[in-house]
Specification:
heterodimer; A: mainly alpha; about 85% helix; about 0% strand; elongated; B: alpha/beta; Rossmann fold; six-stranded mixed beta sheet; four-stranded antiparallel beta sheet; 9 helices; globular; membrane (chain A); ABC transporter permease (chain A); Permease_MalE (chain A)
Chain lengths: ~240, ~250
């Protein structure tokens, strides 16, 4: 995203936050988007988080083969890695692919089929009507999905570690409950909030300014996912640097 | 009435509109005609604010549209109905929801009042009972009629129609043209139709503004169009063999 695009992105965001024409209509759209972004992604996030937790535990156990390191460390490292990095970032990247491409292609198709022009001619603030419900759904549902992902990742670690015999159930549970710092959850939720913002607004921007036809909509969708993923990783670094 | 004065619009170094002026009265069907690339749709978009002209003014009953801020434009747009070339119906909504959409957004009517209005509009375009169909289930002509129904749902003072006949068979085209004319006369709307369909020109063109290469070349009625000696206009109107043959009878 070059500076011109970034400027247009900021102007679009300014238009998104104009006063809604009728809050009741927006509220309905927000709940629909929450269902799409949140409930619709539960299955995918559950599968990915569980397996990532299980695999991470096995890899940590593989690397910590020493009589001087207690096996409870496996649980601690799995917990902190899941909470601080893997759950927010992997969830966000998966959602950037699933939700981001859908948002970009939906809005892009509306642009090329003149549906956005139709909204504007009716006197409706099209950025607000199309993007604000998605944005609100994103910044509320992504943190909830991240909490869900954390829980499943740690649970997945438990099953991965204990079923393979890498760590005993008691050691794992002791590991995840020892020296727990609740601030890590705060950091993860701040990241999730920022990622939710990116996942909804960057694809919306790409879709909103599409020109052309089906090919351009597809290109915008691809660009939306790529830019979202890069933005997520950059913001991940910045938030981590600022908060830890 | 809508009045445009000296409209100029460029895209990069390409000047698309070169000082277009015209006056579109209420209660008559106003047509903007011209060949492909002549600037018809650009002029229409400048008039409704989807494009910003570099120069010139657009007045809605004396209200200067080009100098209005966002909020003031919204008030004018609530008085505008528009039928787009591709109908621009919302894919995710049924016919009923499409027509009810502006009513939901801008009125405090009860559901039954809104439904009554929707049914009235559907009846007006001869699509009674099609409330629950989605746009994907409609033919091209039906989509256009739903587009008209949505455009008139809010009782617009100004009706804009972009290429109403594109992709339609001649019979359906005539039905759409007649519907536009009837609505214009019945509700005394200021109707502006962008078209290059000669059936529309001859059938409903009360006032015609002819554009060629971004300039206004001619204005008049469909009764006068056959009797001009402007070469560009004659080339456009009588391009087909049928129209050439028919010219003798005009």
């Amino acid at each position: 995203m070059n500076f011109t695009n970034f400027g247009k992105y900021l102007l679009l965001l300014k238009a998104v936050f104009r006063k809604p024409e009728k809050f009741k209509i927006y509220l309905k759209a927000i709940f629909q988007q929450m269902d799409f972004i949140g409930v619709g992604s539960l299955g995918l996030i559950a599968i990915i988080s569980t397996f990532i937790g299980a695999v991470m535990t096995l890899q940590i156990a593989f690397q910590l083969v020493s009589d001087f390191i207690p096996k409870t460390i496996i649980g601690s490292v799995t917990r902190d890695s899941s909470i601080l990095e893997l759950s927010p970032t992997i969830t966000a990247i998966v959602l950037a692919g699933k939700i981001g491409s859908a948002i970009s292609s939906e809005i892009g198709t509306m642009r090329v089929s003149e549906q956005i022009d139709a909204l504007e001619i009716m006197g409706i603030n099209s950025p607000g009507y199309l993007i604000l419900p998605k944005l609100i759904a994103g910044i509320t549902m992504v943190p909830l999905l991240v909490i869900f992902a954390m829980a499943l990742s740690i649970t997945g670690g438990y099953f991965g570690g204990t079923l393979s015999g890498a760590v005993s159930p008691a050691e794992y549970i002791q590991g995840i409950t020892t020296d727990f710092n609740p601030y890590t959850i705060v950091v993860a939720l701040v990241k999730a909030f920022v990622f939710g913002f990116i996942i909804t607004t960057v694809p919306a921007y790409e879709g909103f300014y599409v020109k052309g036809g089906a090919l351009e909509v597809a290109q915008a969708s691809t660009r939306a996912v790529v830019v979202s993923c890069i933005s997520i990783l950059a913001c991940d670094y910045i938030v981590t640097q600022l908060l830890l | 009435m809508i009045e445009i004065k000296d409209i100029e619009k460029s895209f990069g170094s390409n000047t698309v509109l070169k000082g277009i002026s015209g006056k579109f009265e209420a209660g008559v069907t106003n047509l903007i005609i011209g060949g492909s690339g002549s600037g018809k749709t650009t002029l229409l978009k400048c008039m409704i604010g989807l494009h910003t002209p570099e120069k010139g003014s657009v007045q809605y009953d004396g209200r200067e549209f080009t100098e209005m801020d966002f909020e003031q434009r919204i008030e004018i747009r609530k008085e505008i109905g528009m039928l787009f070339q591709g109908s621009a119906l919302f894919d995710s909504m049924t016919v009923e929801e499409n027509i009810m959409f502006p009513l939901n957004m801008f009125t405090e009517q009860t559901f039954s009042e809104k439904l009554e209005r929707v049914n009235f509009c559907l009846e007006r375009v001869n699509l009674e009972g099609k409330n629950k169909l989605f746009p994907a289930e409609l033919s091209g002509g039906m989509k256009k009629r739903v587009g008209i129904a949505r455009a008139i749902a809010m009782n617009p003072k100004y009706l804009f129609v972009d290429e109403p006949n594109s992709g339609l068979d001649p019979k359906t085209s005539i039905v759409i043209d007649e519907l536009i004319k009837e609505i214009t006369e019945e509700y005394n709307t200021t109707t502006i139709v962008v078209t290059h369909d000669m059936n529309s020109v001859m059938g409903i063109g009360d006032y015609i503004l002819f554009l060629h290469e971004g300039k206004k070349f001619w204005e008049g009625s469909n009764k006068e169009i056959a009797h001009t000696d402007i070469q560009e206009l004659n080339d456009f109107v009588f391009a087909s063999r049928f129209m050439k043959a028919a010219k003798k009878n005009f």
